[in-house]
Write a structure and sequence with these properties.
This protein is of the alpha+beta class. The chain contains 13 helices and 51 strands. Strands 1, 3, 4, 6, 9, 10 and 12 form a seven-stranded mixed beta sheet that branches. A five-stranded parallel beta sheet has the order 28-27-26-34-33, covered by helices on one side. Strands 2-14-7-11 form a four-stranded antiparallel beta sheet, with no helix packed on it. Strand 21 and strand 22 form a beta hairpin. Helix 12 packs parallel to helix 13. The longest helix is centred in the last third of the chain and has 25 residues. The protein is globular, with a radius of gyration of 29 Å. Keywords: Glycosidase, Hydrolase, Signal. This is Exo-beta-D-glucosaminidase. Belongs to the glycosyl hydrolase 2 family. Pfam families: Glyco_hydro_2, Glyco_hydro_2_N2, Ig_GlcNase. It comes from Streptomyces pyxinicus.
Length: 901
C-alpha cells in the first residue's frame, strides 16, 4: 500500500471477558474453555512432527528469574498467561481477559503500548519416552526475534532467530531427556520499520504489541540418523494440449550423525513407485532426484489438471517419501501438490497478462487481511475464502502477512488463486522506497531477507493456488536484493512467475512489473472505472477501490457506541478511529460529500447507512464490470484488478467487501452482481448494454431487455434483442446502445436489465440508477489516492420514491449440518413504483444476523407484479438453537421480519 504523508483494564473474571468477546468476535476466539498451559506429548515414531500447543507467556519485566530457570522443567510459572499455538502476546492477553474487546469503540487505545517495549517470555513443556530418537525444533514465524532455550540451555541467540519468515531447525537431541522437557523463547519487541517482519501500514489501528510473538507452529520433530527435508515435486504440464505432465521428485537426504550411513529412499506418487540407495558421509547432505527418465511412471498421460474456481476442478496429488536405515524407518516426508501451468508475459501494452493452463485469465481479486492479532481460526478463514468464490473472485492478494500453510491448503481446495508478496513502505522497502518509513538495510538484513525468500519459496511452491510472488510492492528491489531473491527462488525450484513490484516499477533483471498502482483509494463515481487512464479499466491494477465501505447497521451497532454512531452520520470531518490511522484517510469527508451531493443530505443514521449501501453497490459493481468488459479489447485491454481490500482485520469503515463479522453490505452484493458468470451490464462510458460470459462454453439464444423508468415507475424506454450469442471464457457482446435522452423531465432514471434464455428463464437481473447530469471528474488534479469530482450526478429523486411493500414467504431445509432457507419476494403495492435494493437478512430469534451466509442474490430491484426466489445457505449451528427468521427491507421498502422455519 502507498505510504501516507492509557493503561489496560483488568477484568475480575475470565467469564466476563469471554462474554464481552463472545458478542464481538468469531466463535473460535470467544467460546470454549480458557487456554491452559498444557504439556504436549511427543510420539516416538520416526518422521513425526508435533506442534507444541500448551504455551504460557509473561513480560520479562515481571520475571526476575534467570533464563536457565525459566526454561527448565518444573519452573513455577505463577501468574503467567496461557496461550495457544501461533499466538502474539496481545492475542494471549485478550484470551485471558486482560483487556476489553479492542474491536469495539476506542478500547484499543486503553492498552498501554509501553508494556510491549520489553521482551516477553513464551514457554511450553513437552514429554518424550524415547530418547534414542533424534529430536529437533522446527519453526518460523518469530516476531521479531528470539533467544531460544531448551531445558535451561540457550540453543540459538536472537541474532540468529530473527525475521518473521525465516525458517529454523535446531537439533536439541543432546538436551532432551525422558519425561518432561521445556522450550522457551525470549521474544524481542517488534518494529516493522526496523525489522523484516510485518506491519499494518494504513489498513487499521496497529496492535499495541505490533504482533510480537510466535505466529506459526513450533514443531518437535523425531527421526533417525537420516533426515528427509525439502521434498517437492517439479511439474511440467504440456500446454496447450494438457495431454501429459512430467513430474520430477526431489528431496534432501541429510546424515545427522558423525558416522557414514547408507539409506534407502523410497517414494510413492499415484501409481508410481521408486527407490534409491544413497550413501552419505558424516553430516553430508545430498539431493535425491527421481524423474521420468529413470521412473517412466512419473510421466503422466491425461493428468488431472488443477484450475481456478469456475474454470474446472481442483484435483491434488500426494507424494510420500520414506528413508530407511538398516531396515528401520528413519524419516518420512509428504507433500500435496497440484498440476498446472502459470505464465505471465507482458502484453503489447506492457501489462502483465496471466495465463493458466494455456488460457488467458482476467485477474479479479481482493486484498487479504488476517486477524489484527494474527489469531488463526481455520473455519473463519475458510468462510472468507468461500465468500471469495461466492463473489466470483478468482484471486486473493497477500501483501505481507503470509498466512500459515493451512490457508494455502484451503485456497488449493477452493480454487482461489493467491498473489503473495512482501509488503510496502516499512523495513522491507527501506533501501528502495524514498517515501517509506523503513530503515536502511545492514548486511545482516540482506541475509535475513534472502533466508525469508528461501523459506517462503520452499513452503509455497507446491500449492497450485499460488499464482506468483511479488518481490516488491510499492517499490521494486535494487540489484543486490533482487539477486538474493531470485537466487533463493531458483534454488527452491520456484514454479510460478516472479513479479518485481505491484506498482509500475522495474528491477534490473526482471524488468518492468506490468502492473500499476495508480489508485484510487478513496471515493470516485462509477463512471471513473471505464476511463482508460489512472486506475480505470486498462492493464493490471494491483490495488484499488472507491475507499470507504460502511458496514450494515447490525455491524455498526456492534463496533461503535451510540455517540460515535451519531458523529458518523453528522460530521464528515470527524476523525474516525475505525477508518485508518493515516492522516489521508482518517475522515470520511470525500465520501460523505459525494453521498450528500448525489443522494441528498442524510437525515439520520439509518438514512446514512442506506445511502451508503446504494453508493457502495454501484461503485464496486462498476469497478469489476469495467475491467470485465475491457478484458478483450484490442487497445490497452484490462488484465487484472485487485479490489483494495477484500476484508478487514478488524471492525472497519473502509476497504472491505465483507466486514469483520462476515456481514454483507452493498459492496459485497455489487461485486457479486458484477462477477456473475453470465451477466448483462450497462457501460457508463458508451451507454451500451453488454452481455458477458465467463462460462467455458458459448451462450446462444439469449434475450436481453433494457427498460428505463422514472423513479415513480413511469416507463420511458424499452428495448429487447433476441437470439444473442456470446462466446465463452470471458467473451462479451454489445446488444445495443441506450439513447442519450428520453422523454420527460426527470433527471434521475432507473435502468432494469434482464437477461433470459430461449425458454424465457431469467438468467441475470441488474438494476442501475442513472442521472441526466453525470458526474464530472477533474482528472488534472488527480492525486495518488483520489480524482476529484467537480459535479455530481443528480440522484436525489430516489429519496422521493413511494414506499413499496414487499411480501415474503420463506421455508428452511436442513441436511447434515447445513441449512438452506428459500425466500420468495413479491411486490404487493397497487402503484407502479418499483422496490429498489430489496435486502433480505437471515436472523435468529433475537434478531441477530446469522453469519456467514451465502445468498444466491440479494439487494435486488422488483417492479410491480414481479417476484423472485432467493436462497441462503449456512451452517445450522450458527442459528444458535433458534428457528430461522428473515428480515426484509430496502431503499423504499418498510422493514419486516417473518419466520422461515
Amino acid at each position: 500500500m502507498f505510504p501516507r504523508p492509557a493503561p489496560g483494564r483488568r477484568y475480575p473474571t475470565t467469564a466476563l471477558a469471554l462474554v464481552l468477546l463472545g458478542a464481538l468476535t468469531p466463535a473460535a476466539w470467544a467460546s470454549g474453555p480458557r487456554p491452559r498451559a498444557e504439556v504436549t506429548p511427543i510420539p516416538s515414531a520416526a518422521g513425526t512432527s508435533t506442534p507444541l500447543t500448551g504455551w504460557a507467556v509473561q513480560s520479562s519485566a515481571k520475571v526476575a528469574d534467570p533464563a536457565a530457570a525459566v526454561s527448565s522443567p518444573g519452573y513455577a510459572a505463577a501468574g503467567w498467561h496461557p496461550a495457544g499455538p501461533r499466538s502474539t502476546v496481545l492475542a494471549a492477553l485478550l484470551a485471558d481477559g486482560v483487556y476489553a474487546d479492542p474491536f469495539h469503540s476506542t478500547n484499543q487505545r486503553k492498552i498501554d503500548r509501553a508494556d510491549f517495549q520489553v521482551p516477553w517470555w513464551f514457554r511450553s513443556d513437552f514429554t518424550v519416552t524415547d530418547t534414542g530418537r533424534r529430536t529437533s525444533l522446527d519453526f518460523s514465524g518469530v516476531v521479531s526475534a528470539a533467544d531460544v532455550y531448551v531445558n535451561g540451555r540457550r540453543v540459538a541467540p536472537a541474532a540468529q532467530v530473527t525475521g518473521a519468515y525465516t525458517h529454523h531447525e535446531l537439533d536439541v537431541t543432546p538436551l532432551v531427556r525422558a519425561g518432561t522437557n521445556t522450550v522457551a523463547f525470549r521474544v524481542r519487541p517488534n518494529d516493522p520499520n526496523r525489522h523484516l517482519t510485518m506491519g499494518w501500514l494504513d489498513w487499521l489501528q496497529p496492535p499495541p504489541d505490533q504482533n510480537m510473538g510466535l505466529v506459526r507452529d513450533v514443531l518437535v520433530r523425531r527421526g533417525g540418523p537420516v533426515a528427509l527435508r525439502d521434498a517437492h515435486v517439479v511439474t511440467d504440464l504440456a500446454v496447450p494440449s494438457l495431454a501429459t505432465a512430467d513430474l520430477t521428485v526431489r528431496a534432501e537426504a541429510r546424515n545427522d550423525t558423525a558416522a557414514p550411513v547408507t539409506t534407502e529412499v523410497s517414494g510413492r506418487l499415484g501409481g508410481a513407485r521408486f527407490t534409491r540407495t544413497v550413501s552419505l558421509a558424516p553430516h553430508q547432505r545430498r539431493t535425491v532426484t527421481f524423474s521420468p527418465a529413470d521412473v517412466p511412471a512419473l510421466r503422466l498421460t491425461h493428468p488431472a489438471v488443477w484450475w481456478p474456481a469456475g474454470m474446472g476442478g481442483q484435483p491434488l496429488y500426494d507424494l510420500d517419501l520414506t528413508a530407511t536405515v538398516a531396515g528401520r524407518t528413519s524419516d518420512t516426508a509428504h507433500q500435496r501438490f497440484g498440476i498446472r501451468d502459470v505464465r505471465a508475459p507482458l502484453n503489447g501494452d506492457g501489462a502483465r497478462q496471466y495465463r493458466i493452463n494455456g488460457r488467458d485469465l482476467l485477474i479479479r481479486g481482493g486484498g487479504w487481511s488476517p486477524d489484527e492479532f494474527l489469531r488463526w481460526d481455520r473455519r473463519y478463514v475458510e468462510d472468507r475464502l468461500r465468500y471469495a468464490v461466492d463473489l466470483g473472485l478468482n484471486t486473493i492478494r497477500l501483501e505481507g502477512h503470509l498466512e500459515p500453510d493451512e490457508f494455502f491448503d484451503l485456497a488449493d481446495r477452493y480454487g482461489v488463486l493467491t498473489l503473495p508478496g512482501w509488503e510496502c513502505c516499512d523495513k522491507w522497502e527501506g533501501d528502495v522506497n524514498p517515501d517509506g518509513s523503513g530503515e536502511k538495510w545492514t548486511d545482516a538484513d540482506h541475509a535475513v531477507a534472502k533466508a525469508s525468500m528461501a523459506a517462503e519459496a520452499a513452503r509455497l511452491r507446491g500449492h497450485p493456488s499460488v499464482l506468483s510472488f511479488l518481490i516488491g510492492s510499492d517499490a521494486a528491489p535494487n540489484a543486490r536484493i533482487e539477486k538474493d531473491y531470485l537466487d533463493a527462488l531458483r534454488a527452491a525450484d520456484w514454479p510460478a512467475p516472479v513479479v518485481p513490484a505491484a506498482s509500475d516499477a522495474s528491477s534490473p533483471a526482471l524488468g518492468a512489473s506490468g502492473m500499476k498502482m495508480t489508485g484510487p483509494y478513496d471515493w470516485v463515481p462509477p463512471a471513473y472505472w471505464y476511463a482508460k487512464r489512472e486506475g480505470g479499466a486498462t492493464g493490471f491494477n494491483s490495488e484499488t477501490s472507491a475507499g470507504p465501505s460502511i458496514p450494515t447497521l447490525d455491524t455498526l451497532r456492534r463496533m461503535m457506541t451510540p455517540a460515535e454512531l451519531d458523529t458518523l452520520w453528522k460530521d464528515p470531518r470527524a476523525k474516525q478511529y475505525h477508518r485508518s490511522p493515516s492522516a489521508t484517510f482518517r475522515t470520511l469527508e470525500i465520501y460523505d460529500k459525494a453521498l450528500a451531493a448525489r443522494y441528498g443530505t442524510p437525515t439520520g443514521l439509518t438514512d446514512y447507512v442506506r445511502k451508503a449501501q446504494l453508493a457502495q453497490y454501484e461503485s464496486v459493481r462498476a469497478q469489476f464490470e469495467a475491467y470485465r468488459r475491457n478484458a478483450r479489447d484490442a487497445d490497452r485491454p484490462a488484465t487484472g484488478v485487485i479490489h483494495w481490500m477484500f476484508n478487514s482485520g478488524w471492525t472497519s469503515l473502509h476497504w472491505q467487501l465483507t466486514d469483520r463479522y462476515l456481514d454483507q453490505n452493498g459492496a459485497y452484493f455489487g461485486a457479486k452482481k458484477a462477477n456473475e458468470p453470465l451477466h448483462a451490464q450497462y457501460a457508463y462510458d458508451t451507454r451500451s448494454v453488454v452481455v458477458l460470459n465467463d462460462r467455458p462454453a458459448p451462450a446462444r439464444g439469449l434475450t436481453v431487455r433494457a427498460t428505463l423508468y422514472d423513479p415513480d415507475g413511469t416507463e420511458r424506454y424499452d428495448r429487447s434483442v433476441t437470439g444473442l450469442a456470446v462466446g465463452g471464457s470471458g467473451a462479451h457482446g454489445t446488444a445495443f446502445t441506450l439513447p442519450s435522452s428520453v422523454p420527460g423531465s426527470a433527471r434521475t432514471h432507473l435502468l432494469r436489465l434482464v437477461l433470459s434464455d430461449r425458454d424465457g428463464t431469467e438468467l441475470s437481473r441488474n438494476v442501475y440508477w442513472l442521472s441526466t447530469a453525470p458526474d464530472v471528474l477533474d482528472w488534472e488534479h488527480t492525486t495518488w489516492y483520489h480524482t476529484p469530482t467537480t459535479r455530481y450526478a443528480d440522484l436525489g429523486a430516489l429519496g422521493a420514491m413511494a414506499e413499496v411493500p414487499v411480501a415474503a414467504t420463506a421455508a428452511t431445509r436442513s441436511v447434515g449440518g447445513t441449512s438452506t432457507t428459500t425466500v420468495t419476494l413479491r411486490t404487493t403495492g397497487s402503484g407502479r413504483t418499483p422496490a429498489l435494493m430489496t435486502d433480505v437478512h437471515l436472523v435468529d430469534a433475537q434478531g441477530r444476523p446469522v453469519l456467514p451466509v451465502r445468498w444466491s442474490d440479494n439487494e435486488i430491484g422488483l417492479w410491480p407484479g414481479e417476484s423472485v426466489t432467493l436462497r441462503a445457505t449456512y451452517r445450522t449451528a450458527d442459528l444458535r438453537g433458534s428457528a430461522p427468521r428473515v428480515r426484509v427491507s430496502g431503499w423504499n421498502t418498510p422493514e419486516r421480519t417473518l419466520p422461515a422455519g
